[in-house]
Amino acid sequence: MKAFNLSEWVLKHRSFTGFMLALVVLGGVFAYHMLGQQEDPPFTFRIMVVKTLYPGATALEVEQQLTDRLEKKIQELPNLDYLRSYSKPGESVIFVTPREDTSPKEIPELWYQVRKKVDDIRMTLPPDSIGPFFNDEFGDTYSLIYAFSGEGFSYADLKLAADSVRQQLLRVKDVEKVDLIGVQDEKIFVEFSDKKLAELGLDTAAVAEALQAQNGMAPAGTVFSPQRNLPIRLTGAFDSEASVANMAVRIADRTFKVSDFAKVTRGFTDPAEFKMRFNGKPALGLGVTMNKQGNVIALGKTLEDTLAGIKNELPLGMDVEPVANQAHVVKNQMAEFGQTFLEALATVLVVSFLSLGWRTGSVVALTVPLVLAATLLVMLLCGIDLQRISLGALILALGLLVDDAMIAVEMMARKLEEGWDRMRAATYAYTATAFPMLTGTLITIAGFLPVGLAQSSAGEYTVAIFQVVGISLILSWIGAVVFTPYLGFLILKVHANAEGPIHDLFDTPFYNRLRRWVDACVAHRNKVIVATLALFGLGVVALTHVPEQFFPLSNRPEVIVNLWLPEGSAFEQTEAAAKRMEALLAKDEDVEHVASYVGSGTPRFFMLIVQQLANTNLAELVVMTKDNQARERVMQRVRQILETDFPNVRGRVKRLNVGPPMDYPLAFRVLGENPNIVRGIAERVAEVVRNHPGTVDVNDDWHDRMPSFRLMLDQDKARALGVSTASLSQALQAHYTGIPVGQLREQDKLIDIVWRASPELRTAADELPDVAVRTANGKAVALSQFVKFETVFEDGVRWRRNRFPTISVRADVADGKMAPDVAAEIVPKLKPIQDSLPAGYFIETGGSKEDAVNAQKSILIWIPLVLIVTLILLMMQLHNLSRTFLVFSTAPLGVIGAAFGLLLFRAPFGFVALLGILALAGMIMRNSVILVDQIDQDEKSGLDTWSAIVESTVRRFRPIMLTAAAAILAMIPLSRNDFFGPQAIAIMGGLTVATALTVFFLPALYAAWFRVERANEGHKALT
Q1: Integer Cα distance of 819 and 828 in angstroms
Q2: Which of 134, 161, 363, 897 has the fewest Cβ atoms surrounding its Cβ within 10 A?
Q3: What's the pLDDT tens digit per position in 411-458?
Q4: C-alpha dihedral over 943, 948, 951, 954, to 10 degrees?
Q5: Which run of H or of E encompasses 152?
Q6: Within a 10 A sphere around the Cβ of 42, how many other Cβ atoms?
Q7: How far apart, in Å, are the Cα atoms of 485 and each of 18, 403, 492, 812?
Q8: Rounded-to-integer distance, Cα 346 and Cα 920, Å
Q9: Measured between alpha carbons, how far is 284 from 304 in angstroms, rounded to an integer?
């Protein structure tokens, strides 16, 4: 550092420096316009879904025959954290979750291994199973969703229009894919009557076979002539529902038209499986996914312009309306962060001008934008977009990056006041403080190191805090030794008449009073140290009383309403409940629009949403309110509506969450070998959770049992009649659900032809015993002659975790309560139940409490590395082990102010607040190392240790207070932010108290540490 003076080189090459400065400014402007703009940072969803169908099987049979076999094989995966699965009638779904420390780069290979291992056992699965199917794009998020609707338009009309628009949107720049949402597949229904078939002596199976044979697609050969080859084409395939109705069927030497014994209609999948509705109307959705390099705001504007032209070509009366618009959200987010950033920047500049004066403050005011421009340029080169985390980190860094510039320019101004020439004054800071400043900067960055290394979902989500703060602080040091001397040389004036001793600058009433206070602290060192330790103890106790939180709620205005009907409810009942809720919300003045999804959850329009999978008894409504205040009013009204108007519906009203996706904030898992015992334990756990005043909507994920018909076949009678279980199953399937008997090929569409009974026969459960079944001799026999009927209740869904039957007792928390706090209060009450459990049965805490613990572990595990890095940096600077540990011991002082600040402002202690407290340690040690280094320099200059302590503290007081004030005041605008607020408050409180302790406690600690005694009473300050 002493051999080469970078500041001196910069000033000797001012033309080159000015040129580079201009390039940095232009590069920053260019980077700002080129950086991608997103709502949230890139986030790897560490979940793969393996879905397998097993038509006709019960939930238990699915679990035993499919789920268990697949789980045994998937458990062989490396880096597997746990498996979650559910089995329901006819369907198995397994969620594969790798360990959180699995690198995002390793995830694709892991998903390949899942496919490979499942393929290894595919042949051992039941022959009638369908799949498995894999979904490793679980985290794909739609940037924009549009709804196509209109009076008098069928789903086929809407699909035709949406398909056309889809093709045009795929040509738009940065559009990766466009999906249709809520498509209803067309069907041709051939509906028969048992009585009619009996009158004509027809067999349902024979008719089905005839229909299937009529429409088969098979090659008819080719005539190979000497001149050319002539393919042979046969007509007769169905081309409309009329051709199906008019088809002649010859059975048992008799010929009939299909219309003679069945009704042919064209419709859609019945009953439906999934529907989308918008503002009370049936709708078809169009979801647009942006590629990773895109700018969502620019994409939104382009799509808006494109659709404006397309709408004119759509049929009159068809509406295309935005359902979810991430471009609008990000635009508002950018505006909000932009305002916060400008407020923070203005605060820093005001501090600079008021404390340093107009000319000196101007140097800092010009250095800050240069550092920010360079930061944006490096962010562009590193691929860090502008999003929630990086924008907040920029504002957070703003309060820190002025420190080095303030120290450098303050020292330059002081030397000019002493009469130094501009060149000597501008280069002095580099020789005196460049290395301590660099050490302090690196120590501050080291405080953010745990979030940069955290191998967890929370760490991945917030890693931009470390990246952006690290980049900006390194550049701030470069700015302090390059930009600041250059600008100071141009702007600051020489004080020609400012000759005099150095101590005259600090020989004022204020500094003399400060000198006496510091001297008193050194003299009464033991009292000061004991008082500080007591204060630290109070801070630790106060921190335990701060409400806990994992991640804050989103400030988006959407309200999510879930309507769960009893297990086994018909799709029509679920749709009716959704329509009733839509009608009530339509009257609410605070609601802009409502999108409903019946039979499943909403598509992922917000990256951090927890998607609900297909359930015929679920309707999920996304209610767009006018603003956040309206959101709270709507939530209260919907809760009242659910209590009074929906007695048989389990309703849930929630906001959107920020941070790694989480379904319920409170969850307690009960697992063991025997599902019946597990269910009994879960009921006891649910009772404890329900009795806590802070819980709302306590439920479990196994839901209620659902009724089903059990048909007990008399095998002797069945064999005598020539009826097999397979033929009986097929006959009942054809009667009630319907079986495909062919396809109608219409242009590029394949429309299934479904053979089933007429509606009045399919819905009459009491007529099941009278269903006619064809016997071996061709006669029809009523089902009741060889079957006994029984109504039983079976599990609608069976959840497992790592192959253990698992019931999760879930709940929301009451407004004003924090989930980790409520969980911490419930856990001791569950201990008597846990202690009484038989061997092999367990109760585990899940939800936000578990996620918070895992996230904190991923952070705290890196603390030893931070300690080692910090000690190395301190030793490089101080070259003294004793002084190194002295500085190191000041790191925890931030806890005091942080705890009291969080309590005072009623801010929760969560993941981001923890990051703030860790970062405080670096900020505090930065000031400490500069002060201790100054004491060492003063001792080497000839001062006795006592005087060096006092005089160094007095001289360092101004830059310490200025940098602290800039950082603290810059946090004020950020403290209003929903996400970064707790972190900003922790830093503000911690830095306020720690700065005062640096001035008064550190001198006392230094004196006690080295057992300093007063040399002589008359010793003067360094001159």
Answers
A1: 15
A2: 134
A3: 888 888 777 888 888 888 888 788 888 888 898 898 888 888 888 888
A4: 160
A5: none
A6: 18
A7: 12, 15, 10, 57
A8: 23
A9: 18
